[in-house]
Amino acid sequence: MIPVRDDLRALDGYHSAQVDVRVRLNTNESPEPPPAAFRDAVAAEVSRVEWHRYPDRAATELRAAIAELHGVDPDQIFVANGSNEVLQTVLLAYAGPGRTVATFEPTYQMHAQIARVTGATVVEGERAPDFTLDPAEVERVVSEYRPHVVFLTSPNNPTGLVEPVERVMQLLSIAPGLVVVDEAYAQFAEWSALDLVAEDRPLVVTRTFSKTWSMAGARLGYLVGPTWLVAELDKVVLPYHLDAVKQIAGRLALRYSDDMNDRVEHIVAERERIVASMSDLDLEVFPSGANFVLFRVGPGQGLAVWQGLVDHSVLIRDCSGWPRLTDCLRVTVGTPEENTAFLTALADVLTHPSSTDGVTV
Ligand SMILES: *Cc1c(COP(=O)(O)O)cnc(C)c1O
User: Fold this and answer.
1) What element of type H or E holds 23?
2) Integer Cα distance of 294 and 333 in angstroms
3) Is 356's pLDDT higher than 50?
4) Nearest Cα residue to atom 12 of ligand 1
5) Mutation test of ligand 1: which of 108, 292, 294, 319 has the most ligand atoms closer than 8 Å to its C-beta?
6) How far is the centre of ligand 1, averaged over its atoms, from the C-alpha of 207 (Å)?
7) What span, in angstroms and rounded, lies between the C-alpha atoms of 208 and 223?
8) Which CATH fold topology does 36-256 show?
9) Longest Cα pair distance anywhere in the chain, in angstroms?
10) Is the CB of 320 under 6 A from ligand 1?
11) Count of H helices and E strands in the chain?
12) Ligand 1 pocket test: which of 108, 151, 152, 208 has the largest number of ligand atoms within 8 Å of its C-beta?
């Protein structure tokens, strides 16, 4: 073995348990696939792909389609293989060694993770016990560390909370560097920071095809930001990073936005049903503006409840061992049948805690 970079030695990878179960509600995917008409349209175009040629390096048509969706200029759109690669490209360009990146915890773990991989120093601001963000804490982190990049996630993952517009405005007014608003779940929220994007403002908003667009299998994400920033990202990213098939799939997906909005409606209705059912149980349930629900079980019970659900063939996300999330679990909203299976299993596990003895994880 040869030694890895000193600063990577202490780093843990990003893990989500992959267990063979009947009901998988652990990674916030859409429970419904995209419509059959979309699949047929993709198949027809893919049959005409010139496989011996490199794809359009600038992803011209895909960027034009995304720009049209948001009413912005195509030069304001940067596309990559999942929004995680978008974030990585942003951090390669604006973070890196000697620079500082700020997050407000708990939040999406990949922000700090990718920042560290680029060699940046990560500073963690703290959210209140109810996971809201105090303006004084935003002020403290910005004035104390002068971060080159600051992240907000709205709706936040894994908490589900929608960040109020005032918090984003406050950050924009005091941040010395780039503000990134991760909107992986934006279609579930009542407001978006997209309207704030402007040429004279160091703000980017990131989106993904993985959740509401039912295309986690495609690995496609993008950001909307100032043109001068997108131009810098184009210098950093690898040439031809977006393959021809993905460009087709992304462009055609946007023609089915009505279907996407219908799916969002179904998910929100099911989310409300889950939250209502859970209020009958002895749990702390956090308000969610996304396609998942975070909840806290009794002291010391997090792992046992998670395992009990796995024993009922229901897999959710175990956050109970994460900092600040003691005894918290996160369930993704699935199909009505899956959600009922989850609720039934949860009620059973909570009323028969002995069946969760002998936890094996
Ligand atoms: C799921 C998720 C993403 C999506 O990442 P992709 O690489 O586009 O699949 C990004 N940000 C947050 C907060 C997420 O929860």
Assistant:
1) strand 23-25
2) 11
3) no
4) 184
5) 108
6) 8
7) 9
8) Aspartate Aminotransferase; domain 2 (3.40.640)
9) 61
10) no
11) 11, 12
12) 208
- Whole-number Å distance, alpha carbon 157 to ligand 1 midpoint, is 9
Computed over every residue of the chain, the mean pLDDT equals 95
Nearest CA to ligand 1 atom 3: 184
Q: Quick check: 358 pLDDT over 80?
A: no
- The 10s digit of each residue's pLDDT in 71-112 is 999 999 999 999 999 999 999 999 999 999 999 999 999 999
Q: What is the pTM of this model?
A: 0.95
Q: What secondary structure, in 3-state letters, does 33-73 show? A: CCCHHHHHHHHHHHCCCCCCCCCCCCCHHHHHHHHHHHCCC
Q: Quick check: helix, strand or coil at residue 232?
A: helix
- Tell whether ligand 1 has an atom less than 6 A from the beta carbon of residue 208: yes
- Which residue's CA lies nearest to atom 14 of ligand 1? 184
Taking alpha carbons only, the member of 19, 14, 30 closest to residue 266 is 30
**Does residue 5 contact residue 216 with C-beta atoms inside 8 Å?**
no
Q: Indicate if ligand 1 lies below 6 Å from the C-beta of 108.
A: yes
Tell me how far apart the alpha carbons of residues 97 and 6 are, in angstroms, rounded to a whole number: 13
Could you tell which of 84, 156, 242 is best to mutate to test the pocket of ligand 1, judged by most ligand atoms within 8 Å of the CB?
A: 84
Q: Map out the domains of the chain as residue ranges.
A: 6-32+258-351, 36-256
Determine phi and psi for 325, rounding to 5 degrees.
Answer: -125, 35
- Determine whether the shortest distance from the Cβ of 184 to ligand 1 is under 6 A: yes
Ligand 1 contacts CB of residue 186 (under 6 A): no
The Å distance, Cα 270 to ligand 1 centre, comes to 21
**Which residues, 6+ apart, have CB-to-CB distance to 104 below 8 Å?**
124, 125, 126, 127, 133, 137, 138, 141, 151, 152
Ligand 1 in reach of 182 Cβ (< 6 A): yes
pLDDT in tens, 317-331: 999 999 999 999 999
Structure tokens at 358: 């002998």
CATH superfamily of 6-32+258-351: Aspartate Aminotransferase, domain 1 (3.90.1150.10)
Q: Which of 215, 217, 216, 153 is nearest to 185 (CA)?
A: 153
